[in-house]
Automatic annotation (TrEMBL), chain A:
This is Dolichyl-diphosphooligosaccharide--protein glycosyltransferase 48 kDa subunit. Residues 1-22 form the signal peptide. Component of the oligosaccharyltransferase (OST) complex. The chain crosses the membrane at residues 413-435. It is found in: Endoplasmic reticulum membrane; Membrane. Keywords: Endoplasmic reticulum, Membrane, Signal, Transmembrane, Transmembrane helix. Its main location: endoplasmic reticulum.
Automatic annotation (TrEMBL), chain B:
Residues 455-510, 760-790 are annotated as: Disordered. It is a multi-pass membrane protein. Residues 27-429 form the Oligosaccharyl transferase STT3 N-terminal domain. The keyword Cytoplasm does not apply. It catalyses: a di-trans,poly-cis-dolichyl diphosphooligosaccharide + L-asparaginyl-[protein] = N(4)-(oligosaccharide-(1->4)-N-acetyl-beta-D-glucosaminyl-(1->4)-N-acetyl-beta-D-glucosaminyl)-L-asparaginyl-[protein] + a di-trans,poly-cis-dolichyl diphosphate + H(+). This is dolichyl-diphosphooligosaccharide--protein glycotransferase.
């Protein structure tokens, strides 16, 4: 009996790494989250946010950022599926974590939430820069808005901003409209406009600028207006998602609960939009929304079912692909009318919108162009907030075989007639010439 | 060996043993021919013995791959083969763009051997196809020269051809290229044409068309035949040598040959549509007009004929002018005047270098240098003129053809090194004739002055047996009536040049007279010395040919060797690199390299390539050339758009291998710039000089080819000294941003790089701050330079 136990335990141990595999394409939800804090007070002062994550099934592991024992991976396996950095002032991480380790963590497909604050350390700035976000380099600068500030506060420097300039995307912010403005107090950042991977989720109003509120303005602020981004998200090419916020306090219970009235506005909201905004955003960041997968790419000739190794020019073919979206617990059919397939050889020869059957199956039927070469079926689906689908399947297209042309062309009959009559005439002529004596 | 026998055979009186001697001569020449064939085969085996049984160079690899396909899939699949592994993503219709002669020949040999239960691999068959066919070629040379000047000249020419270096260079074992079989087909076509011309037999005319068809199947050089034969026919007509034999030799060839040529997919309608073939049709019309005129002349009285001529000529001229005007208009309406680029560069040697860099870039399309003549045909270069003179003694239809052949091929060989190959058979034939004539004269005069003694014995011993045979044959022939003796005696009459004798009786008189004169003219000592010198000349030729076969032309070029103080070094880097690709990359990965290495990559690494040695699409090649001449980022984008995964460059700087990509680079710039004008050649040259040292232009030092070639090169010796360019390179320390090195062969000859995937994230603009002081960070703010307050 004991022997069987040993075998059982051993097999469990062998299977364990596979059982608790990190991010998998089939169940893209992150479950184990490492939260790095400056001090454990944040754990209680920001408990609403953490509780909303816990209630959705996340397993949060709180650690001090300079804890010498923290590590992201052990024996090549990542211990966590996501990382939350609520440690804006940390100069050096404890344990084996550094900028490169965090970047590797992201590059292997894991998610990241960064909250900076005034006096954010160079380390946090560097991580943000690697992700494509440039915080204002003046360490004491904050975002100031003299028209868009929140009037409920008594402080007069207008650094507590009530912003409602959200990105227009149901995928990122959920389908329920966020009515109340979001309170923000912290530093702004700018994005490189050519960077297509990073999105401005919450931007400052046109009257905002970034400067040190305590000192007089000696030089024009480098960041002004709606170029300032308050909260941004990044979706890397491997679909790892990153949330970067210039304010740690916007996650706090105090901001979640406080009411808000925007300067110049008469409506006073009982509750700020922070909770809804950040909860919905965390759903997107942790892949509970907007995560697509494409499976079962198939193509075949019309009237056949087997996939051929190559097509002939002018063949009629059917292309189909199944697209699903992760709902947080299961794969649901993705329904859209803008998925297109290209039949591509250096440039698209056929560009066709796929029709779907509402069950996730997209298909299109078209005729192979009258050009031979090595084509590709390409689906390049890049939609705001969704994971990008990029499918390419190579398929050669051959010309006609020698016996696939028409044997007799009707328009050529005069020539056939001419040829055969000449041959007959010559035969008769030779016969007469030779034997007519 | 043969010398004493021949002399004893020559001693008995002529009439009694005539038949026996003929038979004896026949057997002897048969064995000599057999030995020539063996010689031709064996002299080409140096490459197998010194290296290994391996396919050589570039094009043969493609032919080998096609042959493999043929033996695996059969002829119909070969015909319809659409190859998706080359010219990605365009693909190539192999069946319709390849001359199938060589492939079908080797495929047939393989199939035949296998059905005889001789299980040879396809590669072995391919390796030995060329030597086998060079044996055939020397026999065809024998047939051709025999028709022109008799058996002796034929055997001499065959011996010369069996080991002429020019031909060896293209037909050593492993050199599995079209020329290997095409030269045989070329000579055989000519010999059948001469045979038809001499006999007037329709059987040979038909055979000629079929062999011409084989030639068309084998090589694009068939246009040489279809232009040379019409030229000869025209020459015959102009010099008043029209005969029905000429008509039979020519007309069926044009009709049947053109029909058959149109059957080859790669030629197709070109056989009637391109200017290369117009000459044959024009002459076809002319020969019919001439034949008609001769016919009319036969049935009309001379007076009536004159009237008819004036009538026809005036009408005919008008019609001709009209037709020619239409033709010129038609031809002129096409942009290249109906001529393909390669043909135009034959007529105007500067055409290619002016307009088509892709043709000019190939080294074998360059004009040859004088040393290459000496290297490739050696002493034949000196014998050719005397051979031409011999052809004029007297000028027959057949010998005029040889003169025309040598004249045109000398011109063509002067245009392109590659066409040296066409010159070689002509040189062998004329030299064979010259040598044979000289030996004939000398041995005969010796024998005449030493009656009853086995005269030439001691002189002839070292030399090839064919010479003595030739002398003997000559004697035999001297007694032959009619045809053969018609030209033979007058040929000997060196003093009575260009005497055209119509009647046999007069001829006989001339013959005896001439013989006496000649025999008296040459003293014994002079003959002996000349013989000795000729034999020395021949020996020199043999030594040179063996040396050329063993040393110069046997290197397979994918395996290199070098002799140093430490012994023999073997550089097998190419196969190392291709093997790496085959084992370490995905089957569908695309490999980009300059087109030289395309065939080898598909055949040996079995990976898809972007461009290869079949340079059919100039734009595609220019795209690759542009990528190689661009800076890294632009190059990455070009390659990425072509789905390229790996880039392969050949680099000889470490071991001093001169034909590497850096030396070919200017051609990439030129070809790329020809299509994409933003690549400009002067940007890569410093004061018109191509250099890669510290004086090189920044464009040169930043282009992809430079970077991929010299990446990490400084780590080899610390100085980055390039042994090909004999200089230190200009930029030694640099990093690659868009490519990563994945493999470099043992001697650094082949370097393989992988395109880095697009970055997972895009970094922000902020530089990594080294210091934490706020002063530096504020000075780094964007827009500070425009700020008037700072």
């Amino acid at each position: 009996m004991g022997k069987f136990w040993v075998i059982f335990v051993a097999s469990i141990l062998i299977l364990l790494p596979f059982l608790c595999n990190s991010f998998s394409p089939d169940t893209p939800t992150d479950r184990r989250v490492l939260v790095l804090l400056d001090d454990f007070a944040i754990k209680s002062s920001h408990s609403s946010y953490f509780n909303s994550l816990k209630s959705r099934g996340f397993d949060l592991d709180f650690k001090l950022a300079d804890d010498p024992k923290i590590a992201l991976q052990r024996y090549g396996q990542y211990l966590y599926d996501a990382l939350i950095l609520f440690c804006p002032s940390i100069e050096r991480f404890g344990g084996s974590i550094d900028v490169a380790a965090i970047i590797d963590f992201v590059d292997s497909g894991h998610d990241l939430v960064i909250a900076a604050d005034v006096n954010a350390s160079d380390l946090i700035r560097e991580v943000a820069t690697e992700c494509g976000v440039d915080f204002d380099e003046d360490p004491s600068a904050m975002v100031i808005d003299h028209t868009g500030y929140s009037v409920s506060e008594t402080e007069g420097d207008h650094t507590l901003i009530a912003s409602d300039d959200f990105i227009k995307s149901d995928v990122i912010l959920g389908s329920n409209k966020i009515t109340a403005p979001v309170l923000f107090q912290g530093i702004g950042h700018s994005l490189n406009p050519v960077n297509s991977l990073v999105l401005k989720v919450l931007s400052a109003s046109p009257s905002a600028y970034s400067a040190n509120p305590k000192s007089k303005l000696s030089t024009p602020p480098s960041l002004t207006g709606s170029a300032i981004s308050l909260v941004s998200v990044v979706q890397a090419r491997n679909n790892a998602r990153i949330l970067i916020s210039g304010s740690l306090s916007m996650f706090s219970n105090r901001f979640f609960r406080s009411g808000v009235q925007k300067a110049g506005s008469t409506t006073k909201h009982e509750k700020s939009g922070n909770e809804q905004f950040l909860t919905e955003l965390s759903k997107w960041v942790f892949h509970e929304r907007g995560h697509l997968k494409a499976v079962n790419v198939k193509h075949h000739k019309v009237g056949e079912t087997n996939e051929p190794a190559l097509y002939r020019i002018n063949d009629e073919l059917v292309y189909s692909v199944e697209v699903y979206e992760w709902s947080g617990s299961s794969w649901e059919p993705y329904v859209a009318d803008d998925v297109q397939v290209q039949f591509y050889m250096m440039s698209p020869y056929v560009l066709k919108t796929l029709s779907n059957d509402k069950k996730g199956l997209y298909s299109a039927s078209f005729k192979v162009p009258d050009v031979y070469g090595v084509f590709q079926f390409k689906v390049e689906y890049q939609k705001l907030g969704y994971t990008s689908l990029s499918l390419a399947k190579q398929i050669p297209v051959r010309p006609y075989r020698h016996n696939e042309y028409e044997r007799f062309i009707p328009t050529a009959y005069p020539y056939y007639g001419a040829a055969f009559s000449t041959m007959a005439g010559f035969f008769i002529f030779s016969f007469v010439h030779l034997y007519n004596k | 060996m043969a010398a004493p026998e021949t002399s004893t055979a020559a001693v008995p009186t002529l009439h009694t043993n005539n038949t026996l001697r003929n038979a004896f001569g026949g057997v002897l020449s048969f064995f000599i021919l057999l030995l020539i064939g063996v010689l031709a085969f064996l002299i080409r085996l140096f490459s197998v013995i010194k290296y290994e049984s391996v396919i050589h160079e570039f094009d043969p690899y493609f032919n080998y791959r096609v042959t493999q396909f043929l033996t695996k899939k059969g002829i119909y699949d070969f015909w319809n083969w659409f190859d998706d592994r080359t010219w990605y993503p365009l693909g190539r219709v192999i069946g319709g763009t390849v001359y199938p002669g060589l492939t079908l020949t080797a495929g047939t040999i393989w199939w035949l051997l296998n059905s005889l239960n001789i299980p040879l691999s396809v590669e072995t068959v391919c390796v030995f196809t060329a030597p086998i066919f060079s044996a055939f070629a020397s026999w065809a040379t024998y047939l051709l020269t025999k028709e022109v000047k008799g058996v002796g000249a034929g055997l001499t020419a065959a011996t010369l051809l069996a080991m002429v270096p020019s031909y060896i260079s293209r037909s050593v074992a492993g050199s599995y290229d079209n020329e290997a079989v095409a030269i045989f087909a070329l000579i055989f076509t000519f010999s059948l044409y001469i045979k038809t011309l001499n006999t007037g037999s329709l059987f040979y005319a038909t055979l000629n068309s079929i062999v011409y068809f084989y030639m068309v199947c084998s090589w694009g050089g068939y246009t040489f035949i279809i232009n040379l034969i019409p030229m000869h026919v025209l020459l015959c007509i102009v010099t008043g040598r029209y005969s029905s034999r000429l008509y039979i030799a020519y007309a069926p060839l044009v009709v049947l040959g053109t029909l058959l040529a149109a059957l080859v997919p790669v030629v197709g309608f070109n056989a009637v549509m391109t200017s290369e073939h117009f000459a044959s049709f024009l002459v076809f019309i002319i020969i019919h007009v001439v034949a008609f005129v001769y016919y009319i002349k036969g049935i009309l009285s001379p007076k009536m004929f004159k009237v008819a001529v004036t009538l026809v000529v005036s009408v005919g001229l008008a019609v001709c002018c009209a037709v020619i005007a239409v033709l010129i208009a038609l031809v002129a309406s096409s942009p290249t005047k109906g001529w393909s680029g390669r043909s135009l560069s034959l007529l105007d040697p500067t055409y290619a270098s002016k307009y088509i860099p892709i043709i000019a870039s190939v080294s074998e399309h360059q004009p040859p240098t004088w040393p290459s003549y000496f290297m490739d045909i050696n002493v034949l270069a000196f014998l050719v003129p005397s051979g031409i003179i011999a052809c004029f003694l007297p000028l027959t239809d057949a010998s005029s053809f040889v003169v025309l052949y040598i004249a045109t091929s000398v011109y063509f060989s002067g245009v392109m090194v590659r066409l040296m190959l066409v010159l070689a058979p002509a040189a062998c034939i004329t030299s064979g004739i010259a040598l044979s004539e000289a030996f004939d004269v000398l041995t005969r005069s010796i024998k005449f002055q030493l009656p009853g003694v086995s005269s030439g014995a001691e002189v002839d011993e070292g030399e090839t047996s064919s010479d003595t045979t030739e002398a003997r044959n000559d004697e035999v022939k001297a007694e032959k009536p009619e045809e053969k003796s018609k030209d033979r005696p007058s040929k000997k009459s060196k003093k009575k040049e260009r005497e055209h004798v119509e009647k046999p009786s007069a001829k006989a008189k001339v013959k005896t007279k001439a013989e006496k004169k000649r025999l008296l003219a040459l003293p014994l000592e002079a003959s002996a010395v000349s013989l000795l010198l000729l034999i020395l000349l021949g020996a020199f030729y043999v030594v040179h040919c063996v040396w050329a076969a063993a040393e110069a032309y046997s290197a397979p070029s994918i395996v290199l060797t070098s002799h140093t103080r430490n012994g023999l070094h073997v550089f097998d880097d190419f196969r190392e690199a291709y093997a790496w690709l085959r084992h370490n990359t995905d089957v569908d990965d695309k490999v980009a390299s300059w087109w030289d290495y395309g065939y080898q990559t598909t055949a040996m690494a079995n990976r898809t390539v972007i461009v290869d040695n079949n340079t059919w699409n100039n734009t595609h090649i220019a795209t690759v050339g542009t990528a190689m001449s661009s800076p890294e980022k632009a190059a990455w984008e070009i390659f990425h758009s072509l789905d390229v995964k790996y880039v392969l460059v050949v680099f000889g700087g470490l071991i001093g291998y001169p034909s590497d990509d850096i030396n070919k680079f200017l051609w990439m710039v030129r070809i790329g710039g020809g299509v994409f004008p933003h690549i400009k050649e002067p940007d890569y040259l410093r004061d018109g000089q191509y250099r890669i040292d510290s004086q090189a232009t920044p464009t040169m030092l930043n282009c992809l080819m430079y970077k991929l070639s010299y990446y990490r090169f400084v780590e080899t010796d610390g100085k980055a000294y390039d042994r090909v360019r004999r200089t230190e390179i200009g930029k030694k320390y640099f990093k690659l941003t868009h490519f990563e090195e994945v493999f470099t062969t043992h001697h650094w000859m082949v370097r393989i790089y992988k395109l880095k995937p697009p970055k997972n994230r895009i970094r922000g603009k902020t530089k990594k701050s080294k210091s934490k002081t706020s002063s530096t960070s504020s000075s780094k703010r964007s827009g500070t330079k425009k700020n008037p307050w700072l």
